[in-house]
């Protein structure tokens, strides 16, 4: 790896919150699905009155806030007429079922990977964000955009930030020594 490439990569790493770009991309997608996507799925889940009636206990109450995204998807699959598939739907299909399938598809795909390159990240982020906005409404647009550019280590304690910086320095030292 030449000096110019290392400097470019160092710049990318620092811009992404001291986490390598491919890992940062993966973390952003996982966070988008788990935090923002789950809230958008809850909006759709709450629209399904018949489904909610089946879930009500004899005493007390239940709320979509009590469920994670996986459980809500199970309910969609088994208690509604929506067909939630396992394959990525065609782009022109913007139905509720297709958007729920998109979120499930990328959730499963990201759960089995640690990194994702920039091109695949941009495509996936766009698909997931559009699905989230269609499911939950335009109020989710700002959340999706903010997360795309937010520093991932902005709220980490100084000791943890220092550890990241040391790992990066050791990684760059190993790259330089092996060149």
Automatic annotation (TrEMBL):
Pfam family, one: HEPN_DZIP3
DZIP3-like HEPN domain: residues covered: 48-155
Disordered: annotated segments: 1-20
InterPro entries registered for this protein in UniProt: HEPN_DZIP3
Name of this protein: DZIP3-like HEPN domain-containing protein
Native species: Mytilus coruscus
